[in-house]
Design brief:
The chain is α+β, with helices and mostly antiparallel strands and 290 residues long. It has an 18-stranded mixed sheet that branches. The longest helix has 14 residues. It has two domains: 134 residues, Diaminopimelate Epimerase, Chain A, domain 1; 118 residues, Diaminopimelate Epimerase, Chain A, domain 1, CATH 3.10.310.10. It is globular, with a radius of gyration of 19 Å.
Length: 290
């Protein structure tokens, strides 16, 4: 039976979405200029035992003169990343559900990584123009090379063993290493060692990648601020960049993650990364905030 809201509590409506199992709580934040939740409250909401459960909370805010909307996101540990590939696909579907478009569901989204442009396609998939990859060490940032140099297949010691790594920024930092058997990687042990290594002053996302063939990669990811997740859209883009730069994969490649597959294209025309994948609504609800 429906019960009225207790006195002194303000309900906040939310909708849960996921992109290949990378799950988010979406909040309509269009009437306020700052997120409705603090980072501490986001941690509570993301808790899978005592909260709603998610990898992050995404706020849909109003855009500026050059954009339609603004995306802010808090990770499950309360940190705020610059961008999230699966998250922005979920945001595009959330906006389209919130305000069904009369025409093409294509949005210019202001993020901390710049303007990102997702488009909801007729089949429900979302294709996202992820922009240009950034390769200079100072942009990533990492101290593995000089600020204007690139980190491509360079040796790097972590956890008392050697790795060869390539570093890419998709607005957020990524460290990619290619391995023989991605399933054998002890992600929970190695992930934090990469993430918090002093060579990455803003921490890093880490991708372990196995080449199945030049057009098909398998990847596992340790996300900065969220840990092991089932998918990472910016990571899949960074992996294809690393694969192309090291001669391991094609510019159009399927990337298989634990939660499913993303189609990634590194365009030869404009050098932008294009990511195509699903975003699915799970449920809606209200949280009573005192």
């Amino acid at each position: 039976m429906y019960q009225s809201t207790p006195s002194g509590f303000t309900p906040i409506r939310f909708t849960k979405y996921h992109g290949l199992g990378n799950d988010f709580i979406l909040i309509d934040n269009l009437q306020q200029s700052e997120p409705l939740l603090t980072s501490e409250q986001a941690i509570q909401w993301c808790d899978r035992n005592f909260g709603i459960g998610a990898d992050g909370v995404i706020f849909a805010l109003a855009g500026d003169t050059n954009t339609d909307y603004t995306m802010r996101i808090f990770n499950s540990d309360g940190s705020e990343p610059q961008m999230c590939g699966n998250g922005i696909r979920c945001l595009a579907r959330f906006i389209a559900d919130l305000k069904p478009p009369s025409g093409l569901a294509r949005y210019r989204i202001n993020t901390l990584a710049g303007v990102i442009v997702p488009q909801v396609q007729a089949d429900g998939q979302v294709r996202v123009d992820m922009g240009l990859p950034r390769l200079q060490a100072g942009e990533i940032p990492t101290t593995l090379a000089g600020p204007e140099e690139k980190v491509i297949d360079l040796p790097f010691a972590v956890a008392d063993r050697p790795w060869n790594v390539t570093c890419v920024s998709m607005g957020n930092p990524h460290c990619i290493t290619f391995v023989e058997d991605v399933a054998a990687i002890p992600l929970a042990t190695l992930g934090p060692k990469f993430e918090h290594h002093p060579a990455f002053p803003e921490r890093t996302n880490t991708e372990f990648v196995q080449v199945i063939q030049s057009s098909f990669l398998k990847m596992r990811v340790w996300e900065r601020g969220a840990g092991a997740t089932l998918a990472c859209g910016t990571g899949a883009c960074a992996v294809v960049v690393a694969g192309v730069l090291t001669g391991r994969c094609d510019r159009q490649t399927t990337v298989e993650l634990p939660g499913g597959c993303l189609e990634i294209e590194w365009s030869t025309t404009d050098q932008h990364l294009y990511m195509t994948g699903p975003a699915q609504k799970v449920f809606t609800g209200e949280w009573l905030k005192d």
